[in-house]
């Protein structure tokens, strides 16, 4: 009896060792998905605990706090529905309208609220549907990032792409901006669509490229940049992954999501560009990046005139925080060749990095980088093979994530 038990125990240990080795080092898609799921479980549990503890010391008053109280008696649940969650839920409940001031749904693209509504039909609530959609999207995108990194061979000189791929999964789910992949916003699904499109182009899965491209441009305006980058990536890799005529058609048809939204607003609101024009109320318009920075420091715009004294200006500390985030990430844009990142992904990274500055707004500039695939490749590639740097970077990431988790989840203007 004792001998049989010892034999079984040894067999269990051997099986467990094989499972750990597979989980830690296998490059298979299933291993990537398993790693992403485990990281997601660990990080979401930690975030929920942190938000709960921080919420014990939270007070917020004023309209920008009360209108975001979806679940006023549950701190953790309410933390999932801040910032633009009110507008996305309004799209689901009331559709599109131009409204007045900030009370409008016109600027919010339909991809995320439409899918949240569809999933909500299955689970009984569009709010729950959106949260499920986003968290599943985050897991799938993290697993696909690992596959994309391997396919493109992204890594620092002398480093193993497999190690970079595993670090990319961790980064996608545990970096400071991972908070926005769990809440009722469009970042998570947009990230999945963007990663899925580039992965489909790199592997030659053209029907997936079509679906992902349409989803990306129907979810955020930056989706147009992703589709353009995907077309450039297909051209860069045409010798490795031949592109048939219908493959080009699938990639370029990704702009259809944006085209459909523009056509819908033309019919429903009488203005095809209502999603652009409405934002002019908030001083968001196409400008040179200098104008955005000059407004922050109070300098007059180039060519004369005075700085915009708009009463809609948000708190200086918030603007400074966002500008620092852009400045800290900017040097990474000069490491493309060293990290062997394709030029198309590099151009995509520059475009998404510049978009907030081109839009005359520092609001959510850092958050906007949550779906920036260039940074999601460059940072893991830079730190994966440097233990000391990796440890310091992740310590800093933890501090910044704690900041986001303790401010975002407590109401728009709690800080």
Q: What does it look like?
A:
The chain is mainly alpha-helical and 415 residues long. It is built from 21 helices and no strands. It has helices spanning 2-25, 29-55, 63-66, 75-78, 85-94, 111-123, 126-152, 161-174, 187-203, 206-219, 223-236, 245-252, 256-269, 274-277, 289-297, 316-329, 336-339, 343-358, 365-368, 373-383, 387-407. Helix 6 crosses helix 7 (126-152) and helix 7 (126-152) runs antiparallel to helix 8 (161-174). The model is unreliable at 302-314 (pLDDT under 50).
Which SSEs are present, and which pair or pack?
Layout: H1 2-25, H2 29-55, H3 63-66, H4 75-78, H5 85-94, H6 111-123, H7 126-152, H8 161-174, H9 187-203, H10 206-219, H11 223-236, H12 245-252, H13 256-269, H14 274-277, H15 289-297, H16 316-329, H17 336-339, H18 343-358, H19 365-368, H20 373-383, H21 387-407
Helix pairs in contact: 1-2, 2-7, 2-8, 5-6, 6-7, 7-8, 7-9, 8-20, 9-10, 9-11, 10-11, 10-12, 10-13, 11-18, 15-18
Brief summary:
The protein has 415 residues and is an all-alpha fold. The chain contains 21 helices and no strands.
Q: What key phrases describe this protein's structure?
A:
globular; 21 helices; mainly alpha; 415 residues
Q: Cα-atom Rg, whole angstroms? A: 22 Å
Give the number of DSSP strands: 0
**Helix share, percent:** 55-70%
Q: How would a textbook summarize the main sheet?
A: none
In DSSP terms, counting alpha (H) and pi (I) runs of 4 or more, how many helices? 21
Strand portion: under 5%
The unreliable regions are 302-314
Instruction: State mean pLDDT (0 to 100 scale).
Output: 84
H/E element order: HHHHHHHHHHHHHHHHHHHHH
Described by the principal axes of the CA atoms, the overall outline is: globular
Structural class: mainly alpha
Give the termini distance in whole angstroms: 65 Å
């Amino acid at each position: 009896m004792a001998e049989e038990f010892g034999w079984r125990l040894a067999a269990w240990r051997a099986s467990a060792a094989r499972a750990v080795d597979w989980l830690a080092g296998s490059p298979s898609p299933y291993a990537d998905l398993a790693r992403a799921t485990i990281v997601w479980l660990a990080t979401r549990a930690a975030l929920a605990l942190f938000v709960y503890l921080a919420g014990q010391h939270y007070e917020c008053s004023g309209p920008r706090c009360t209108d975001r109280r979806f679940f006023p008696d549950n701190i953790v649940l309410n933390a999932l529905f801040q910032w633009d969650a009110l507008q996305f839920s309004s799209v689901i409940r009331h559709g599109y309208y131009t409204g007045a001031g900030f009370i409008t749904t016109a600027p919010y693209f339909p991809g995320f609220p439409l899918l949240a509504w569809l999933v909500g039909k299955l689970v009984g609530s569009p709010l729950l549907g959106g949260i499920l959609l986003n968290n599943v999207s985050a897991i799938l995108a993290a697993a696909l990032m690992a596959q994309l990194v391997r396919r493109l061979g992204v890594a620092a000189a002398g480093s193993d792409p497999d190690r970079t791929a595993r670090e990319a999964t961790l980064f996608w789910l545990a970096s400071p901006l991972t908070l926005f992949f769990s809440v009722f916003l469009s970042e998570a699904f947009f990230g999945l669509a963007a990663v899925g499109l580039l992965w489909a182009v790199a592997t030659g899965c053209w029907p997936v490229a079509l679906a992902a491209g349409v989803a990306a441009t129907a979810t955020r305006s930056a989706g147009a940049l992703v589709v353009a980058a995907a077309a450039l990536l297909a051209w860069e890799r045409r010798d490795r992954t031949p592109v048939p005529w219908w493959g080009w058609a699938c990639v370029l048809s990704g702009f259809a999501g944006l085209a459909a939204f523009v056509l819908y607003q033309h019919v429903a609101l009488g203005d095809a560009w209502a999603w652009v024009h409405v934002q002019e109320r908030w001083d968001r318009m196409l400008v040179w990046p200098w104008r955005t920075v000059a407004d922050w420091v109070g300098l007059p715009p180039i060519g004369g005139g005075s700085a915009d004294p708009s009463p809609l200006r948000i708190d200086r500390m918030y603007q400074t925080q966002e500008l620092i985030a852009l400045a800290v990430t900017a040097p990474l844009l000069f490491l493309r060749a060293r990290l062997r990142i394709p030029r198309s992904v590099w151009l995509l990274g520059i475009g998404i990095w510049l978009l907030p500055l081109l839009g005359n707004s520092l609001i959510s500039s850092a958050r906007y980088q949550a779906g920036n695939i260039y940074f999601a490749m460059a940072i893991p590639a830079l730190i994966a093979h440097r233990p000391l740097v990796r440890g310091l970077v992740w310590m800093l990431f933890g501090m910044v994530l704690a900041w986001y988790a303790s401010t975002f989840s407590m109401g728009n203007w709690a800080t």
